[in-house]
Design brief:
The structure is a single chain. The protein is built from 8 helices and 7 strands; from the N terminus they run H-H-E-H-E-H-E-H-E-H-E-H-E-E-H. By secondary structure, it is an alpha/beta fold. Helix 2 crosses helix 3 and helix 6 crosses helix 7. It is globular and about 55 Å long.
């Protein structure tokens, strides 16, 4: 089935549910970010791509942000982070040296990309290990982080990227959609690469846990789609909304089902 452009017929949610949007993983994660912001009573959300490379994914996020704002009313801040110099030193088996080498995926169009991006997104250059704390410091509870794409390939870079999830709970959506790009190939395992970074993150953080996205495929038409298994959720267990029941009227079973559907929690 050919992928439809964002402007073609059908609502955005309908097209997203059929994976008809270019980079459906980004469309799904960013829509989740907007829905989670709205669920938390916010008007803005932040999304971030770790590993920009040529910038095509980042520009797709910019386009998606405008459409999702029309769909949900949530304004989206788009951030891209990249060393600009390609992969750093590959440090042993955990970084998959059988696949990648230092310098792979170096950005060759930095100035051109900066012109393309303009003021539509923020570009942060430098080793993620050195820049991620500054990114966390730039977060604001009025625009909580709701989606990240981790496409830095190696374990050490992924470990650094996931540090963005360790800030104060109010800086985040109560659950953050996470796309891990390099988890579905023959060499992939939880002792190497991005999956090892996830394992260690969970071991080191009592109130922040990254798990598979258990809402997929859910009620979506496609029961098997390639990117589903690369979608995760970071649960902010110390978020205010997740520490005590919220004050509201009691709901019947039918009303609770409607509440879950309206909140896009399925």
């Amino acid at each position: 089935m050919r992928k439809a452009s964002i402007e073609s017929r059908g609502t955005f949610r309908q097209k997203e549910s059929y994976s008809l949007i270019t980079r459906p993983n980004y469309a799904y994660g960013m829509l989740r970010a907007a829905d989670m912001a709205r669920f938390a009573g916010k008007k803005k959300a932040t999304v971030c791509e770790f590993g920009v490379a040529t910038g095509n994914g980042l520009m797709n996020m910019v386009e998606l942000a405008a459409v999702i704002q029309k769909e949900t009313g949530i304004e989206i801040r788009v951030v891209g982070m990249d060393s600009g110099a390609g992969l750093p030193i590959v440090e042993g088996y955990a970084d998959h040296p059988e696949i990648w080498s230092p310098g792979d995926f170096a950005m060759t169009n930095r100035e051109e990309l900066k012109r393309r991006v303009g003021d539509k997104a923020e570009l942060i250059f430098g080793d993620i290990a050195d820049t991620v704390d500054g990114f966390v410091a730039s977060l604001d509870e009025s625009a909580p982080l709701g989606f990240i794409s981790v496409d830095v390939d190696i374990y050490t870079g992924s470990r650094s990227a996931l540090r963005c999830l360790k800030g104060r709970p109010e800086l985040y959506a109560p659950a953050i959609s996470v796309y891990m790009d390099d988890t579905q190939f023959f060499f992939a395992n939880r002792w190497c690469g991005e999956l090892l970074a996830v394992e260690e993150f969970n071991q080191q953080n009592a109130m922040r846990k990254i798990d598979e996205d258990r809402s997929l495929p859910g009620h979506r038409p496609d029961s098997i789609t390639y990117w589903y298994r690369s979608m995760f959720v970071c649960h902010i267990l110390d978020h205010e909304l997740r520490t005590k029941p919220q004050a509201r009227e009691r709901l019947s079973l039918e009303d609770h089902f409607a509440f879950m559907k309206e909140s896009s929690l399925f």
